[in-house]
């Protein structure tokens, strides 16, 4: 155990998060996402897991250590519902609340069409699969920066 580190963040996940640079993207997905196949195409090249927990809780853990990118408009992305792109599912609403709490303000969660989401995911740094069983529990986040301490 480490002080101040969410216990859901296992050593492999922490290693990947720390290895990412500014602008690198991270996929956090549900159990139905083709996680292993997509993960093999990412920079990290293998699937990471935060099992037996829903997407919102896993994202809460990740955003406790990962800043979101303030230089892009799509630092937080959700997979759109097929045929209903404007619909925001309950799991996506929960994740929106987690993002807003983590960032201390309202933060846009941008919808991306399903197949475009898959393509975006392939170029991500890594993929973390969760135990989320609700549909459309798939998200992509862009890593931001932590500014230096004020002088």
UniProtKB/TrEMBL annotation:
<dbReference type="GO" id="GO:0042806">
    <property type="term" value="F:fucose binding"/>
</dbReference>
<dbReference type="GO" id="GO:0006004">
    <property type="term" value="P:fucose metabolic process"/>
</dbReference>
<dbReference type="InterPro" id="IPR050443">
    <property type="entry name" value="RbsD/FucU_mutarotase"/>
</dbReference>
<protein>
    <submittedName>
        <fullName>Putative ABC-type ribose transport system, auxiliary component</fullName>
    </submittedName>
</protein>
<dbReference type="InterPro" id="IPR007721">
    <property type="entry name" value="RbsD_FucU"/>
</dbReference>
<dbReference type="GO" id="GO:0062193">
    <property type="term" value="F:D-ribose pyranase activity"/>
</dbReference>
<keyword id="KW-0413">Isomerase</keyword>
<dbReference type="GO" id="GO:0036373">
    <property type="term" value="F:L-fucose mutarotase activity"/>
</dbReference>
<dbReference type="Pfam" id="PF05025">
    <property type="entry name" value="RbsD_FucU"/>
</dbReference>
<dbReference type="InterPro" id="IPR023750">
    <property type="entry name" value="RbsD-like_sf"/>
</dbReference>
């Amino acid at each position: 155990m480490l002080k101040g580190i969410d216990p859901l963040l296992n050593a492999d996940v922490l290693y990947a998060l720390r290895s990412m640079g500014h602008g690198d993207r991270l996929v956090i997905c549900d159990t139905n996402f083709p996680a292993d196949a997509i993960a093999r195409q990412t920079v990290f090249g293998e699937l990471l897991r935060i099992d037996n927990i829903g997407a919102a809780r896993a994202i809460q853990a990740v955003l406790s250590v990962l800043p979101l990118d303030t230089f892009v408009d799509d630092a937080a992305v959700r997979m759109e519902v097929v045929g209903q792109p404007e619909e925001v599912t309950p799991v996506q609403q929960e994740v929106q609340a987690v993002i807003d709490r983590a960032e201390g303000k309202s933060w846009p969660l941008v919808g991306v069409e399903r197949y475009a989401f898959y393509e975006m995911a392939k170029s991500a740094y890594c993929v973390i699969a969760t135990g989320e069983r609700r549909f459309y529990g798939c998200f992509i986040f862009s890593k931001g920066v932590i500014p230096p301490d004020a002088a």
